[in-house]
Design brief:
Elements (H helix, E strand, L loop, with lengths): L2 H9 L6 H17 L4 E4 L5 H13 L3 E5 L29 H10 L6 E5 L2 H6 L5 E6 L5 H11 L3 E9 L12 H11 L3 E3 L9 E5 L3
Parallel strand pairs: 1-2, 1-4, 2-3, 4-5
Antiparallel strand pairs: 5-7, 6-7
Helix pairs in contact: 1-3, 2-3
Amino acid sequence: MKPESLRVALDAKGFLDPDEGLALHRAGLRAAASGLGPLLEIGTYCGKSAVYLGEAAREGGAILFSIDHHRGSEEIQPGWEHHDPEVVDARTGRMDTLPFARRTIADAGLEDHVVLIVGSSIVVAAGWAKPLALVFIDGGHGTDVEWADYRAWSPLIAPGGWLAIHDVFADPTAGGRPPYEIYRAALGTGEFTEDEAGGCGSLRVLRRRPA
């Protein structure tokens, strides 16, 4: 990973720790080099993970599509532990992380390799047809939202492609259940297996069985 991109990623707001970010980058490199399709992430926030995946897309000659409505998921709204008042638009009083994400991608020199899509993940999925080499699920962690993202996007992963999920905690006291539940559900289908070369911390990387 380019040192300048790594510096941008480390400085960007977000909840992916550096080791998880580098593991995500490694998975992105394999996906980008596979020729199976573009990469896609759900949950841009301020662009931290988009730099790790976008740099992998650049190196592999692929494109990353990064989807977020940029109004903040439930667990980062005012009154919650991870709320950041700096990302609140003073004019509207609502969260707006899009300017931060655009700045992060520009600072990393990845504007030709990362396409920011502003909107609901589920709405975008309804109009999406192209198979994907990798899907990274890291949007809202509420039960309905997380399961909707998984159900909408996991069928679009190409055979041999990758599914990455953040904030997977086996211990219920360490974090919320939905990411762990969709991780277990994906393994339970028999279509996905653990990618032994991927994953770190709370990041899990699975691979869809080839056709």
